[in-house]
Amino acid sequence: MRREKLRGAEAVANKVAGMIFGDPAKALVMSYVRQLVADGHAEWDLLANGEIEVRFRTGDSFIFGETTIIRIA
């Protein structure tokens, strides 16, 4: 289970790197989200459509797309 989470986190990190290349504003936002994940305040997953789902321990969930962020819960 832990190894699967690590591989999933690596996949998301690689996707994030591709999304933010050349966009300093996206890079800043995603660096904050990445830190929240690293600190254990959130989890993120790469969805089949290439978007990133971020779930916070508070129960809030967001979808990060190429150009939008959608709050889903």
Feature tags:
single chain; 73 residues; four-stranded antiparallel beta sheet; 4 strands; 47% helix; globular; disordered N terminus
Describe the structure in your own words:
This protein has helices spanning 2-20, 24-38; strands spanning 42-46, 52-56, 61-64, 69-71. With 73 residues, the chain is an alpha+beta fold. Strand 2 (52-56) and strand 3 (61-64) form a beta hairpin. The longest helix is centred in the first third of the chain and has 19 residues, at 2-20.
Strand segment count: 4
Number of helices: 2
Q: Nearest-angstrom radius of gyration?
A: 12 Å
Which ranges are low-confidence, i.e. pLDDT below 50, for 5 or more consecutive residues? 1-6
Distance between the termini: 25 Å
* Average pLDDT over all residues: 80
For the largest sheet, list the strands in their spatial order.
Answer: 1-2-3-4
Structural class: alpha+beta
* Overall shape: globular
Please provide the ordered H/E string of secondary-structure elements: HHEEEE
The largest pleated sheet is described as:
4 strands, antiparallel
Estimated helix fraction: 40-55%
Q: How much of the sequence is in beta strands?
A: 15-25%
The structural domain count equals 1
